[in-house]
Amino acid sequence: NSSNTFLCIKFSVMQPGTHVWPHTGPTNCRLRMHLGLVIPKHGCKIRCTNDTREWEEGKVLIFDDSFEHEVWQEADSYRLIFIVDVWHPELTQYQRQTLSPI
Known about the structure:
Layout: E1 6-14, E2 18-23, E3 30-38, E4 44-48, E5 51-54, E6 60-63, E7 69-73, E8 79-87, H1 93-98
Antiparallel strand pairs: 1-8, 2-7, 3-6, 3-8, 4-5, 4-7
């Protein structure tokens, strides 16, 4: 049902030396949440527009992935996050029911 709160739930493992080039998500009708599960001390960061942050274990980063973003994994070990996409909070219930989840 497209009115559900969660649109997509997945894990993301990123190995050392990975760089995800600047890109944008397909829609601005969702927000993306990243929960840090296994995060090396230094070298794992994400930039969304002009704001660059590092993941932290047990903490959530929330961003609108329709804005340009990129990721660097320059640590010595893998990074594991749990990703949850949710409807953008400014959407109405009607919009949630009529839009296709992406």
